[in-house]
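#structure-requests
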Amino acid sequence: MSLRLRSRWKQGERERSLEDLATVGAANAWRAACNGVLNLENEGFETSSRAQRIDIIEEFVAFLLLLADRLVYETFSAEDRARFITAMAMRLAELVDENRTDAQGPGDHRDRFIEKLNERTGVYAECSYSPEEGPGFTMLCCLGDRVTDVLGPTNRKWAQDQVVAIDGPEAAQGFTRALETLLDDAEQERPARGPRRPLADD
């Protein structure tokens, strides 16, 4: 299924802050994750509830958040990088909370998701990534392992292959391409006067 993500700003919008970029980045990650779930279901990997679908979405967005962190590592200052990733994580936590509450009722959904993000950060930190090639095989396998854990033992091998070979790369490519374009556009539209953000090398 074709994945459409926001990669352009509307003309006439105000100068974009890092929080603006993080909000759009989170929305794109969420959309890409939902597309990943839909692709799995279209390939015959059944989910039994909306809560289980959100479990899979959480795995995809955690993966994409860590990709965003790798993507901005070379260009953002340490302060701006932390600010951007924190804002994106907080927005994703809000989306998880809204959807979990709707599906399962009130609970500590936000805190549990943040705990999951912290745990996944440690896992993905050991995985390979390059700006040219994107996530390495080990990083995609980590995503595949987490998604198949959610799906359960039925067709485990085939689900792993689907995520590693197709759904993970598709989500990563669409998300990073859109984020790169948004970052480039935001940088180009900044006034020439005064300090430019968020590039650390300027």
